[in-house]
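Sanity check. The docking grid for XIL depends on where the pocket ends up, so I'm generating a full predicted complex first rather than guessing from homology. Inputs follow.
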Amino acid sequence: MLAMAGAVVLPGNASAASTLGASAAERGRYFGTAVAANRLNDSAYTTILNREFNQVTAENEMKIDALQPQQGQFSYGNADRIVQHARSRGMQVRGHTLAWHSQQPGWMQNMSGTTLRNAMLNHVTQVATHFRGQIAWWDVVNEAFQDGSSGARRDSNLQRTGNDWIEAAFRAARAADPNAQLCYNDYNTDNWNDAKTQAVYRMVQDFKNRGVPIDCVGLQSHFTGGSNYPSNYRTTLSSFAALGVDVHITELDIRNAPTDAYRNVVNDCLAVARCKGITVWGIRDSDSWRSSENPLLFNGSGQKKPAYDAVLTALNSGTGPNPTTPPPTGNPTTPPPTGGQCTATMTPGQSWGDRYNTSVTVSGASTWTVVVAITSPQKISATWSGSPTWDASGNVMTMRSDGSGNTFGFTTMTNGNSTARPQIRSCTSG
Ligand code: XIL
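Predicted complex below; grid placement will be based on this.
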């Protein structure tokens, strides 16, 4: 009977994935969640986290009040715990958030003028340096625009230091961690017709025109209480993308978790090549900052809700990764290598049901370029300690040294092929 079972041909999409992260990876995207450090001891919570998600955002632990409670005294314990939990399991990390009017420590709330500007820039530099190489995307600035019809900046102590505070924060973040993608993140920027959406769009356009370092825009997408999923959401995503930035859905939750709205959000993201992934703002309804609205994909007992099935089905029935989109990070302008040979040795790392880690150590060169090929439908979902670019198929990764040493690593989603393993094509110095 067992031998018979092996011969059964599954109907439908043979590669349909059974978890959110694996399914999103098949589309060249991630599916993530906000994580609270104090829940990492709850095994019901971590079971779902580790099974379903391949991206993590700290819900509160990387905010200014958490990281610098006293001026000059940094407190990284809880944030490091989340980063370690995520990265040791091949999940990418979104840093949230370097500069924000809210959740400031008391000492910062009381500051103004040049003193505050310098304290903000120092915070950006210190924190981005501490996490350098571990963060795929930083929310550099969060929620800097007003709600309503004005399209103006939000009044805050940071805004009162001068209109250029946002670009100053982006420049400081780029200098401290050149390999992190830098995002502007906000809420009520989902409806393309809203003044706030238009204002953020114009700021991003201006930054791109003037060479201010910005790589992405995050739409929080809290469709809950007063602000609903808008039918022009896809237009908003594609309009930002057309400016030459990636788009991320960063804090998704929807009041009462209607299946239609969740499905629409997924389909909208899949329709826009530069929509890189979706993060829900918590795992179970009981973990939500708005738990009374039951806005998430799992109920308080950790069971999948109908919205979960709607999301997974939408991910599984979506079209494949857009071949023009290099996953997941990279610097396409890096010039080709010039030098001679080196040796790259591959070591298998930890593996899980749907993914495995690999590390590669280079000898014979201190700056190097290693080409690694993987076998489709497997897909690399995360990398560290190197600077990757990708060919059009997404199956060949060119990894360049980023100054962090001679070993880099990456996570491969098996996507149904559990036997294939990466192959090293070449190692070139320089
Ligand atoms: C929320 C957290 O979920 C809560 O635990 C905390 O009390 C307040 O902040 N926009 C953001 C997030 O960018 O950081 C907020 O997170 C939700 C709104």
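Relevant for the grid: The first strand starts at residue 30 and ends at 35.
Also worth noting: Residues 1-14, 322-337 have pLDDT under 50 and may be disordered.
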